[in-house]
């Protein structure tokens, strides 16, 4: 349609120039000379103008159609030919044309310009990648004045000749023709504007949809879901008296493992399947959203008669059903966090936070992985936040301290080593359980600076005991996976060993079984570097994480510590004792020392001693104690085992 408008604009110009050319130039001459004999010479200027208008139309449609120099030469040549035809027609009227006159040279220059334009057109045009053929907005606005400017010019001319207006019928007919073309053009413009409005409206609707929906599943996204919650909070949602507002927060367990193992295409298909199952599982009026990744949310207005617990169970079971994807049959579980309110208040922030707290609790469940929000969860979250804030300041305030639990030789019952255990005594004198603050330190990353302090303090204490006359013992220090994964872990350990003066052979680095199971090459190399310096490595809580023989061979640890979980169940003949015997036999075959921790009774001690366990650690001998208490008890101990036995 744009090309048609350009043609109409050029037609207006053609009519305008033809009418004024006849009125001002040609009519008076043809009154004196007969038009017969001129033949086609009369139409040459008109044909030239039509060709020139055609050039303008093409350039307006695509401004990069011609190379710039080619366009300039082409325009110059056409203007010369047009002017030459006008001069030729004038010479015919005046009967002054002669063959070989300067007018023939004029034509030659015009034709030469056209030839030059052809040469320039062989080169590359001005179009660049991403350039649009559309004309600038200023050019489009100028085109609007063509029909109205033409009508204005005719009206002004006729107003000056209103007394003899009957003698200017050509201009009157030209005005009528231009008016008709203008009306037609306006009809086309109006139709085009209507089309643009419809397309813009459709585009806005599509943009709105894209901005508020997930493209993979077609579900609402986080932005739209939060808007629904805001509407609920502001009273804009159609809540019915007595209805409950329930929010489900759903997260797929170990979904990242699926992506890593099978690829994102399979992961996307699982997400699509989950979306379909959620649509089928919840009532039609439920608002279902994909918040991102493998996290979904459901907003539901339900009467009290609906059993939310039953709905949660069925949803959890449905999402745990096998996912059949071609030749693959994959199984996943989903964790559900649920919060319920009766009035819809506090929807956006509080409700999502409450559902998220319930979701985190649900992830810790083995079966029936759903959890309803309870007020205690908020209190627990606030308490953990305050504890984390206090933990940041614990080092500065000297609130952290170490207690040491003795390790006893099973045969001689003499002291052979200790394990350094971290304690936190707050300013008010209250001790915080390690089971509470150590996982928090792991999550926040504080375990790295705290772990360095523990290692330095333990090594310094071992040197102090040695100077105080305590029998030679080994110092066991636990390190977390985050510490070992730090780039400067080896340098940090060696720096502390050198600065404190502890003998490397007296230091035992205790790693967790979860770290050993990763069998990462960098971690193995770090621990081997420490062992090469004389530092020993022990695997703590052996057996709780399904340790593999491959991991033991890779790390080549010097000793293992049998977890208390297995010690509790030994009775000499049961399954528990069979497992412990197997661990002892395996360790001996790999030339490793064995430490049994959590020994609380004489029977446990004697059974382990008789089976060849090397060292004992537990309440049967001693609880963890302060450094001064340990030196007071063992400083003059006459029976001490060898740390290297």
From TrEMBL:
SMART domains: EAL, GGDEF. CDD domains: EAL, GGDEF. Residues 384-638 form the EAL domain. The keyword Transmembrane helix applies. It holds the Pfam family EAL. Keywords: Membrane, Transmembrane, Transmembrane helix. Residues 243-375 form the GGDEF domain. PROSITE patterns: EAL (PS50883), GGDEF (PS50887). The chain crosses the membrane at residues 6-25, 37-57, 69-89, 101-120, 140-159. It comes from the Bacteria. This is EAL domain-containing protein.
